[in-house]
Write a structure and sequence with these properties.
elongated; 46% helix; six-stranded mixed beta sheet; Nucleotidyltransferase, domain 5; 4 domains; 403 residues; alpha/beta; five-stranded mixed beta sheet
Length: 403
């Protein structure tokens, strides 16, 4: 059915082009544009007026219209020649290019869907390949997502994230106060982090007062070289997880040494040992108490775990250091080898642990980001490119925290 163009011009308004006609049917809509004869061809390089050289019939996908999922714009791309700079340029309706073959508003529509849907599902909905949906999404993100502002950052959080099968890792850096993703690079070594510091000016580096990292990571060297005045803070959640691993080692050793009858008390108590006493139900406490009454080493390990949590309550570095020294001495007196090894490692790393009392920095925000990355990877069926993944996580952050 051919419609008159009355009232349709505002829907398909492109500077320098006029709406010629629209053909509608329940499945597909076709829109024809013609070049406005009053509009001059301006050279995109020097701005001078070009002469027409030739025309080529082209099409571009546009937003769904009415009941039509497929809307196609037809037009004649004009190749012009600029005598001033001796160049040739092809003129399309605004925001349509040879590469995209879709209007800007259609690509933005696809990009908004990509924040909530897997790319292959977008393809099914709009009748395109998932790779095309990804291409449109990335073109919009490249245009709309701003580069991170590295001025005035006070706290950084650095962590590693597995993004491929086989444990291929990336290094992730975020603003520790706002949670804004700042950087992502392949690998989990100091060299991966050096790429981030290479982007920063001396003034930007000087504003950073603290950096939160995992004690077992390999980023400390890069931080010390680039931020000599910033305090390194070891993440308390990783340290607690390390202690839980020690307790589990003691539990497994107790199970191996236990009689068949006593093994029944030890089996299945792993998370009971990890859980804080005040967060346990009455049944969980009864079960745990039976285990602690049965095995002296587990009783000591559990008491030490509960005591360890007190370390994070201190607000003065000297008081925190005194308590850590006391805790390490208790671990040595326990004569439990895994606990002793862990305590000695803590004491060697005491500077980064005690820094928590002054800075109160944790990796909570970056762990939340890691969960978000995992969801994106699942939704995208893996990593298409690190650049695209970084744009996606920045887009999600900025949409939730408008500037």
């Amino acid at each position: 059915m051919v419609m008159k163009i009355t009232g349709m011009r505002n829907l398909f308004k492109f500077p320098g082009w006029c709406l010629d006609r629209v053909e509608l049917d329940p499945v597909e809509t076709h829109v024809w544009l013609v070049r406005d004869g009053r509009a001059k061809l301006h050279c995109p390089h020097c701005g001078m007026i070009m002469s027409k050289n030739r025309e080529v019939d082209r099409t571009a996908r546009d937003l769904p219209f009415g009941i039509s999922t497929f809307v196609t714009i037809h037009y004649r791309a004009i190749q012009g020649r600029c005598r001033a700079c001796n160049s040739y340029s092809t003129i399309h309706p605004e925001h349509i290019t040879n590469q995209e073959e879709a209007t800007w508003r259609f690509r933005k529509f696809v990009s908004r869907l990509a924040r909530h849907m897997p790319l292959n599902r977008i393809g099914e909905l709009l009748g395109m390949h998932g790779t095309t949906a990804m291409h449109y999404d990335r073109s919009v993100l490249d245009e709309e997502v701003p580069e991170p502002n590295l001025d005035g950052i006070r706290v950084l959080l650095v962590d590693e994230k597995a993004v491929h099968r086989g444990h291929a890792y990336v290094t992730v850096v975020i603003n520790g106060e706002t949670g804004e993703p700042l950087y992502m690079a392949e690998g989990k070594k100091a060299a991966s982090l050096n790429g981030f510091f290479a982007q920063m000016t001396d003034k930007q580096k000087a504003s950073i007062k603290a950096v939160g990292i995992d004690r077992s990571g390999s980023y400390q060297k890069a931080i010390e070289e680039n931020l000599p005045n910033a305090e390194i803070v070891y993440d308390k959640f990783h340290l607690v997880a390390n202690l839980n691993a020690v307790i589990d080692e003691i539990r497994r050793d107790a199970w191996r040494k236990a009689t068949a009858e006593d093994k029944a008390f030890i089996k299945g108590q792993r998370y009971n040992l990890f859980r804080a006493w005040e967060r346990s139900t009455d049944d969980q406490r009864d079960s745990l108490q039976a285990l602690l009454d049965l095995n002296a080493d587990l009783n000591v390990a559990y008491v030490m775990k509960e005591a360890f949590s007190q370390l994070w309550t201190y607000v003065y570095a000297k008081a925190a250091e005194n308590y850590l020294r006391k805790w390490v001495s208790w671990a040595e007196e326990s004569a439990i080898a895994p606990l002793q090894r862990f305590a000695r490692g803590l004491w060697r790393a005491r500077k980064g642990i005690i820094s928590f009392a002054k800075q109160s920095v944790t990796n909570g925000k970056i762990e939340a980001l890691n969960n978000q990355i995992a969801r994106l990877l699942h939704r995208s069926c893996g990593v298409r490119s690190l650049k695209y993944l970084f744009l996606q996580i920045r887009a999600q952050f900025l949409s939730a925290h408008p500037q």
